[in-house]
C-alpha cells in the first residue's frame, strides 16, 4: 500500500491538550468552551461576541421575532455558537482564524437570508413590494442565471438553505420532524433525506411564502428533481407563485449537451425578466464573472497549499464556504472577494509558519462523497484524533476554468455557455453525475496530485449515484494501493448512524487495518450523540 | 376462458434474457442492440439488421455480487441486471445504449462496462450513454435529435455499417407501428365489461414485445389478436378493475398475484408497458423522420423524471384518463423498492388521483421478483379490493 | 476637570472590565448554550402546538 511521510508539528499546542474532555452527555452541549491559551482564547471570545451581536441584531427586528415563533426550523439558530464551537475544535493560530473568518461570514450570509425571507414572507413581514422582486431558488442551486441582475433590484432567495440545509448543521435533530412528515405522506425512507426533508417542510407548510416567481432545477439527483414536483405544486397551486424548471444536463462532460444547457439558461433569464420586470445587464454580469474568476484563482491557490505537507484551509469551513461562494453567490456579492483574499493570506501565513492542525500528520486523505450534516466537524476530529489530514473534500473540487469576463459580442454568447457549464458542474453533481470517470478517475488523479494515501469515503447510504460505484472504488483503490476508509451515514438523519457510530468506523479502520493508536485518546469516544 | 394458443410459448420466452428468439436472431446475423430505458426511441434501435432487446433479469434469485458492487440500497432491477450481466446472461448483446435516465440504472450499466461483462471477442462492441430530455420543449427535441445522432445512429453506422438514412428510419417506424397496433388492439379487449383477456396474459404479450426481436413475434401476436376476437370471456365477474401504474414490471407474477385476489388489471401505465410505450408514431412528410420520432418520444413520455409542471400534472391527468377509458374502479401505484423517481411519483400521484380525481388508490412498494415477498403484496391487494367493494356498497351499488 | 476625566476613565474601565467579566464567564462556561438547551424543549412544545395546513 502507498505510504506518505509522517509530518511532526514543530509547535506545542497552547492550552487544552485533550478537547474531548469538554463534552458532557447530560448537558446536550459542551460543559465549557475550549481553553486555547490566552491569545487564541481571547480571539475566540471576540468572535463569539461578534456572533452574539449578529444574532442579537437579527432578533431585535420585530418581524424576525414573529418568524422565530412561526417556523420550527428557526430553533436551530439558537445553537449557532454551539455549531461554531464544532468548527473550531482544537484549532489554534491561523487555522482558528481561517475557520472563524470563513464561517462567520457564512453565518452572517445565512442570517441575512433569513431576514430577507421574513421580510417578504406573506405570514411574517409581508413586504409585498420587496417580495415582488424576489426570485426563489432551490437549496442546491447555482445562481448563475441571476448574475446579470442588479442585486439591489432583484433578490435571489435560496429559500431552502436557511430552512433546511443550514438549520440541520446547527441542530442535528431538527430535520427529523420534517422527514417524519414526508414519510407519513408516503415518501419512502430510503430516498435521500435532504430533498425528502424539503418536501416534508413544504407538506408541513413551513417554508416562508414569498417571491414573484421560483426557479427549480435538477442539479443534484433524482430525489432532488422529484421532490421539487411536490414543492412546486404548493407554490403554484396554493400560493400562485409561477415556477420554472431549469433543466441541467447530467452528462456535463459531453460537448453535445452544452447548447441545450445554454438555451435553458436563456429561458430561465427570460422567465425572471418576465416576472420581476427587471432587465438583464451585461455590465452586471461581467462584473460578477470577474469575481467568479477571482474566487476560482483563490480556490486553486488554496488547493495548491493543501497539496504541500502543510495544508491550511480544509474541512467543513472550506467546504461550506465554497458552497456558499461558488453556488449561492456566483460572483454577485463583492464582499466575498475580500474574504477570499483574507483567507488566502491567512493560509499563506500558516503555510510559511508550518502551522499544523494536530501534533502529527500520519496520513494524507482525499475526502470523497457527501458529508453528513450532523457530524459536520468530523474532519477536524479525524485529523486531531488520528492524524489523518483531509486535503480536500469532493464538494470543494469544483470548476477551475476561467470564464469570459470582458464584455464583447462574442463573449455574450459565450457567457450563456459559461453559465451553463457552471450550472452543470455544480457542487457534488459535477462528480456524482456525468459518468463514472468524474467520480472514479478524477479521484485517483487527485490522490496522485495531492499525494494522498487514504480516501475517506463518505458513503451517504441514500446517495444512489455514489453507492452505485461502491465495488469499483474498492477494486480500483486496491489496485492503486490507496486505503479506502468507508464511513457510512444518512446525511441528515442521525437515527440511522449516530455521530459516534460514524466516528467508530474511522476508529475501527485505524485500529484494525492501520494498527495505529490515536493521537488524542480523549477524542476517540465523545458523548455527543444526544447533543444538539 | 380457453387458454390462448401461444401463451405458453410467450411465457417461455420471458424465462431468460437470452431466449430462443434472441438466439435465433443472432443466428440470422442480426445485431442485438441492448437497452435499459423506455426513453430510448425503439425504432432507432431496429434499423436495418438491428434488433432491440430490452435487458431484463427473469427469475432473479441471489444478487449478491451486484450488491457488492452497488450496495443493497440501489433498486433491485439495476442490481439484478448487473448480476445477470456478470453471470454472462447478456452475452448476446452487440452493443448497449443507455440513457442517463434514472441514476441507478445508469450506474448498473457503467458497472457492466467497467467489469467488461459483455462484448468479449467482438471488437465492434460498444457502450453508449445518452442525455435524455427533461421537458417537452423544442429545445428538448433539439437535444434528443443530437443525442440520438451521436449516441445511436453514428455508432451503429460506424461500427456495424447500419443504414441510418431517413428512409431507413421511416421503414423501422412502420414496422414499429405494426407491432404497436397489434399490442394496442389486444389491449383494447381489456375495456370490456367481461374482458376476454386477462391483465396477466396481456402483460406476457406486451413484455415479450420488448424483450424479443420483433420480426420473430409479430406473426404470433397477430394470430393471438385474431384468436381473441372469437374468444369467449368468463362469466364469473371480477371483484374490481384496477389500473396499474409505476415502475417497470418484469415479473408477470405480480399481475397474476393481483388478479388472483379478484382485481382485474384493466390497464397498464408503467415503464415498458403499453401506455405510452406502444403508442404508434405518426410520421408526416416534409420533416426529418428522426426529429419526428424524437418529438413523439418527448411528447408522449410519461417518465417521472420529466420535470416541467405541464408534464408533472399531465402524468396524473393521463392516469385519470386511462382509468376512465378502461373503467377502472381503483388505481394501484407501485414502485420497485429503492426507485427514487417512482418513490416520489407514487406519493404525489396517489395523493392527486385520490384527492383531485376521486379514485381509490393503493400505494405500494414491491420487490423486483414478486416471488420473494408475495405475502405482503397479496394482503395489501386483498384489503384494497375489499375497500373498493365496501365503497361500492356505500354508494348503493352491488359489490 | 482632570478629576472628572480620571473618574470617567475609571468608570469606563470598570464598565469594560465588568462587561468582559460577565461575558467571558458566559462564554467560557458555555452558559449561553446551556440556557438555550434548557429552553429548547419548551420551544419544541410551542411548535408542536401551532396549527398548520398540512397536505401534499
How would you describe what is shown here?
Chain A is α/β, with parallel strands linked by helices and 532 residues long. Chain A is built from 21 helices and 10 strands. Chain A has helices at residues 37-59, 62-70, 80-87, 93-120, 128-131, 160-170, 176-184, 193-203, 222-238, 258-276, 282-306, 315-329, 335-352, 378-386, 409-424, 429-432, 436-439, 441-449, 464-467, 470-480, 499-513, and strands at 7-8, 134-137, 155-158, 213-217, 243-246, 360-361, 363-369, 388-393, 454-460, 483-489. Chain A starts with 6 loop residues before the first strand and ends in a 19-residue tail after the last helix. By secondary structure, chain B is α/β, with parallel strands linked by helices. Chain B has a domain at 169-394: Rossmann fold (3-Layer(aba) Sandwich). Chain B contains 14 helices and 8 strands. In chain B, helix 13 links the parallel strand 7 and strand 8 (361-366). Chain B starts with 6 loop residues before the first helix and ends in a 5-residue tail after the last helix. The mean pLDDT of chain B is 96. The mean pLDDT of chain C is 95. Chain C has one domain. Chains in contact: A-B, A-C. The interface between A and C is medium-sized, with 32 and 23 residues.
In short:
The complex is a heterotrimer of chains A (532), B (399) and C (56). Helix content of chain B is 48%, strand content 12%.
Q: Key terms for this structure?
A:
heterotrimer, B: Rossmann fold, four-stranded parallel sheet, 12% strand, C: mainly alpha, 2 helices, 82% helix, 0% strand
Biggest pleated-sheet summary of chain A: 4 strands, parallel
- In terms of quaternary structure, the protein is heterotrimer
- Mean pLDDT of chain A equals 96
Beta-strand residue fraction of chain A = 5-15%
- The structural domain count of chain A equals 1
Low-confidence segments of chain C: none
Mean pLDDT of chain C: 95
Number of strands of chain A: 10
Low-confidence stretches of chain A: none
Radius of gyration of chain C: 22 Å
Describe the sheet with the most strands of chain C: none
